[in-house]
């Protein structure tokens, strides 16, 4: 990490460093390349190794670049608990499939999560079915956003425009 800091081209701006705790996604969304690149099984790093990277970065903010940080629920709980103890602010990605649980939402907020990038894709049930995004079917998008916002977590939404039923 010290080599990364030394090699930065623009020393006047504070970068947000990224950490990856795991790879892969159990989803089968037809538009997504994550399962093709990293597999449909969520594989995680050793928690101590992830925490060493976060400490080595030495910054108060970081980006967790896992495509689906909450896919491994037990590991996610351990990671969120450890992040809480570090007092960092972080930004990450999650599927809606894991955000219907108040315990998880509370743990996200307590861990320092400030922004989540979420793939909503579309509000059309027909489009969701067609692209294999079953995890978003019949979800209360507005309710999930509201519950995250109430906990101080801002949402960055990802949408697909131009699907067949739009």
Describe the structure.
- With 166 residues, this protein is α/β, with parallel strands linked by helices.
- It is built from seven helices and seven strands.
- The strands form two sheets. The chain has a five-stranded parallel β-sheet.
- The relative contact order is 0.14.
Query: How are helices and strands ordered from N to C?
Result: HEEHEHEHEHEHHE
Helix content: 25-40%
Largest sheet, strands/sense/barrel? 5 strands, parallel
Q: What overall geometry do the principal axes of the alpha carbons give? A: globular
Give the radius of gyration: 17 Å
Work out the strand percent. 15-25%
Strand order of the largest sheet: 1-4-5-6-7
Q: What is the strand tally?
A: 7
Q: What's the tally of helices?
A: 7
Low-confidence stretches: none
Secondary structure category: alpha/beta
What is the average per-residue confidence, as pLDDT, rounded to a whole number? 90
Note the quaternary state here. Answer: single chain
| Terminal-residue CA separation | 45 Å
What's the helix and strand layout?
Layout: H1 2-7, E1 17-19, E2 22-23, H2 34-38, E3 43-44, H3 47-57, E4 61-64, H4 73-86, E5 89-94, H5 102-111, E6 113-121, H6 125-130, H7 141-150, E7 154-159
Parallel strand pairs: 1-4, 4-5, 5-6, 6-7
Antiparallel strand pairs: 2-3
Quick description:
By secondary structure, the chain is of the alpha/beta class.
List key phrases describing it.
5-stranded parallel β-sheet, 7 helices, alpha/beta
């Amino acid at each position: 990490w010290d080599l990364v800091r030394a090699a930065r081209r623009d020393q006047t701006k504070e970068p947000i460093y990224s950490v990856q705790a795991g790879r892969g996604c159990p989803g089968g969304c037809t538009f997504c390349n994550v399962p093709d690149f990293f597999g449909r099984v969520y594989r995680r790093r050793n928690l101590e190794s992830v925490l060493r990277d976060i400490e080595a970065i030495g910054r108060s903010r970081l980006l967790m670049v896992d495509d689906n940080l909450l896919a491994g629920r037990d590991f996610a709980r351990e990671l969120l608990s450890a992040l809480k103890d570090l007092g960092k602010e972080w930004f990450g990605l999650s599927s809606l499939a894991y955000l219907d649980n108040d315990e998880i939402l509370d743990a996200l907020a307590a861990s320092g999560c400030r922004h989540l990038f979420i793939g909503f894709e579309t509000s059309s049930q027909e489009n969701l079915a067609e692209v294999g995004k079953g995890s978003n079917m019949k979800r209360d998008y507005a309710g999930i956003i509201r519950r995250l916002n109430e906990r101080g977590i801002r949402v960055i939404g990802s949408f697909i425009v131009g699907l067949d039923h739009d």
